[in-house]
Amino acid sequence: MSFACPLCNDEFSDRTSLNEHTDATGHYHRCETCWSRFLDDMSLNEHAEATGHGLPPRYECETCDEMFASPIEVQEHMTAKRHHASQTANRLKRQRDRQRRQEKRLAARDAWKKKEESTWSLPLRPRDQGR
């Protein structure tokens, strides 16, 4: 089995020799984010997709809303910042509670408006003459 350099097509009897060649000649593809080296574009692209390197952030931490390029980075962030599922659950509960309070305030306001409207629209009764 031989190992070929994808850039110059030189062949080597083992991977170590190929690696020495790529180191000496710079015949490799480098990740611009972490500087990892890859023998071909496909491997570099797989690395970029898995890690999010070179991609715009599109994954959000559910606890602090910080954005990341990959799910792996979100997980690493959550571990480093000690964000836990219980914090996320507490945050969601606070959001639901805020929404319920807002709905109650709106319902109370609407009920008050209806009460005022019905009071204003009632005809006035004449007072009893005998009093």
List the helices and strands and how they pair.
Blueprint: E1 3-4, E2 11-12, H1 15-25, E3 29-30, E4 37-38, H2 41-51, E5 59-60, E6 67-68, H3 71-80, H4 85-121
Antiparallel strand pairs: 1-2, 3-4, 5-6
Secondary-structure element sequence?
EEHEEHEEHH
Overall number of strands: 6
Tell me, rounded to a whole number, the average pLDDT.
80
Integer-rounded radius of gyration: 33 Å
Helix content: 40-55%
First CA to last CA: what distance? Answer: 117 Å
Strand content range: 5-15%
Characterize the biggest β-sheet: 2 strands, antiparallel
Helix/strand/pairing class, anyone?
A: mainly alpha
The low-pLDDT segments are: none
Number of helices: 4
Write out the strand line-up for the largest beta sheet, numbering strands in chain order.
1-2
Polypeptide structure, described:
By secondary structure, this protein is mainly alpha-helical. The protein has 4 helices and 6 strands, in the order ββαββαββαα. It has helices at 15-25, 41-51, 71-80, 85-121; strands at residues 3-4, 11-12, 29-30, 37-38, 59-60, 67-68. The strands form 3 sheets. Strands 1-2 form a two-stranded antiparallel ribbon. Residues 104-118 have a biased composition (Basic and acidic residues). Keywords: Metal-binding, Zinc, Zinc-finger. Residues 80-103 have a biased composition (Basic residues).
